[in-house]
Amino acid sequence: MVVKGVIEEEDARQRIAELKAQRLQVEAEIATLDEAPTIITLHPATLDRYVENGRRLGREPC
Questions:
Q1: 4-35 pLDDT, tens per residue?
Q2: How many CB atoms lie within 10 A of CB 12?
Q3: What is residue 7's predicted lDDT score, i.e. its pLDDT?
Q4: What domain count does the chain have?
Q5: How far apart are CA 27 and CA 19, in angstroms?
Q6: 22 or 42, which is more confident?
Q7: Is the pTM here over 0.90, yes or no?
Q8: Whether residue 62 has pLDDT greater than 90
Q9: Whole-angstrom Cα distance, residue 7 to residue 32?
Q10: Cα separations (Å) of 16 from 7, 13, 36, 37, 53?
Q11: Is residue 37 part of a domain?
Q12: Is 17 inside any structural domain?
């Protein structure tokens, strides 16, 4: 499905092909790992604070 006015059909086909290739590459990399990666969960407020700190650092002179 292509959303009209957002992306042309040929561009969508190309991008989907790129993403599928990237997915296959990542799956192959994961298959070579000795153990599954550890998944962590962060509190949403922590993520908001991280983003705000990054924005503030970008605005402040060194």
A1: 778 888 888 999 999 999 999 999 998 898 88
A2: 14
A3: 82
A4: 1
A5: 12
A6: 22
A7: no
A8: no
A9: 35
A10: 12, 5, 27, 26, 34
A11: yes
A12: yes
